[in-house]
Amino acid sequence: MAVTAQRWGASTLLVLFGVVCGFVVAEGAARLALDSPQGYALYSKERNEAHASLAKLVSDPRLGHRLEPDAPGHDARGFRNEASVEITDVVAIGDSQTWGVNVRREESWPAVLAKISYLNVYSMALGGWGPPQYEELAHDATGLGPKAILVGLYFGNDIFDSCSAIYSAKGPHKYRRRDRDLSPALMELQSRLASADDQGRGTVVREQVERMGTVAKLWQRVAGRSLILQILMVRGWLPGIPSVDELYEAGDKAWALEHPNAAAAYANGKVSTVMTYGYRGVALDRENLCIQEGIRITRAVLASLRKLGESARVRVGVVLIPTKESIYAAADEALLPHASKEFVELVRHEAEIKEELQEWCKRLTMVCIDAADRLVAAARNGAILYKADSDGHPVAEGYRQIAYAGQDALLTMGVLRAR
Questions:
Q1: Is residue 173 classed as helix, strand or coil in its secondary structure?
Q2: Residue 19: band (very low, low, confident or very high) from pLDDT cuts 50, 70, 90
Q3: pLDDT at 386 over 60
Q4: 176 near 300, Cβ under 8 Å?
């Protein structure tokens, strides 16, 4: 009996071992050939570490903040590249929209631009940076001997960041005005941004997670790391559990219903997202002196970049990155007539500021390509460009369209030749 029990135990272990090995092999094959179901996301070790590193910023006297050299997922200079380089064809400068929030490094628009242009593209970007930092980075970029420097100017916060960076910093700055105090206008914006932010969604998500129970939360954690389990759940072959993305989407929609002056859920076909026009509208409020100052500083930075390009013999261009809200307002003609006053004002202010900067680029004879053209066209074709929650950063397809706008800029600048 003892021998039989031992054989049975050994056989059971072999069967379990075989099942585990088979599952591991199937998981690896699935990850190579299949994508995660919509609403789910498999985070690789590199992507996890890259996002975690953003919480470990260090102060910098020139840039305000930056990442330490060799931060996880970053190169020896602290930028999100596979490796540091001494020379490159193109340098892409920007904030989180250029860094590539929501996607792997190879799906960020600078990395995609490298693939489609067959040029070496080096990314110098980080969330929280704005035009004043772009100017500093451009001086560093010239040391890499590029043919071109592309600046990703995001309308969602770069105008506000221009004012905030200059008037929040300690000590004098060449762009700071001495004939008026901008502190009250900046404090007003910061207060309005705090009240318009969608922090309420976090409470909704936490409440939903607590209601799920211990077993459900454990199942969610396990399923979040397995593509096989995700596919089986979506097809109904295993007990389903909401993904973290789905919980945040539900939280955002609930928050939007309670705050119609700040946000609204949008759905059109397969496209679903949450607009946060209250928050974006504050950051583009032309009536505020700080935003007016941000426009002035942005214009000054563009002029400085133009001069830098001439002196360093480097072509400098700009890729204008629109807000999610303005993209869908242009792509869906039925949206604005029924939108709130805050939504309409955001779209109007963004269009006015964009037109002003485009005219300024013409005066500087500087290439400024509007990524909205490609993003709007993709949205009209039903492409999913953003997550279903309130996040204003694109997903892979959105970044791909921005990369093509970058290619358009390089073609216009003469760095690329049309094939």
A1: coil
A2: low
A3: yes
A4: no
pLDDT per position as a tens digit, 64-83: 999 999 888 899 999 999 99
Measure the CA–CA gap between 410 and 419, rounded to whole angstroms. 13
Distance between CA 416 and CA 419 in Å, rounded?
9
Alpha helix segments (H runs only) across 90-157: 96-99, 109-117, 131-141
Give the three-state DSSP class for 59: strand
Residues in CB range of 200: below 8 A, 6 or more apart: 255, 258, 259
Burial status of residue 125 (CB atoms within 10 A of its CB: 0-12, 13-18, 19 or more)? buried
Q: How many CB atoms lie within 10 A of CB 356?
A: 14
pLDDT at 250: 81
Q: 88 with 120: CB under 8 angstroms?
A: yes
- Comparing CA positions, the residue from 155, 150, 154, 153 lying closest to residue 411 is 150
Rounded Cα–Cα distance for residues 328 and 102 (Å): 19
Q: Which residue has the tokens 């890259």?
A: 50
CA distance 162 to 372: 22
Q: What is the DSSP letter of 79?
A: S
Amino acid at 397: E
* Predicted pLDDT at 79: 96
Cβ neighbours for 366, distance < 8 A, ≥ 6 positions apart: 302, 305, 306, 316, 317, 318
Which stretch of 66-70, 85-89, 183-187, 340-344 has the lowest confidence by average pLDDT? 183-187
- How far apart, in whole angstroms, are the C-alpha atoms of residue 336 and residue 239? 40
DSSP, residue by residue, 269-323: TTEEEEE-HHHHHHHT-TTSHHHHHHHHHHHHHHHHHHHHHHHHT-EEEEEEE--
What's at 275, amino acid-wise?
M
| pLDDT, mean over the chain | 87
Question: Please, which residues have CB within 8 angstroms of residue 256's CB and are 6 or more apart in sequence?
Answer: 262, 263, 264, 265, 274, 275, 390
> How far is C-alpha 2 from the geometric centre of its chain's CA atoms?
62
Q: Give me Rg for the CA atoms of the chain.
A: 24
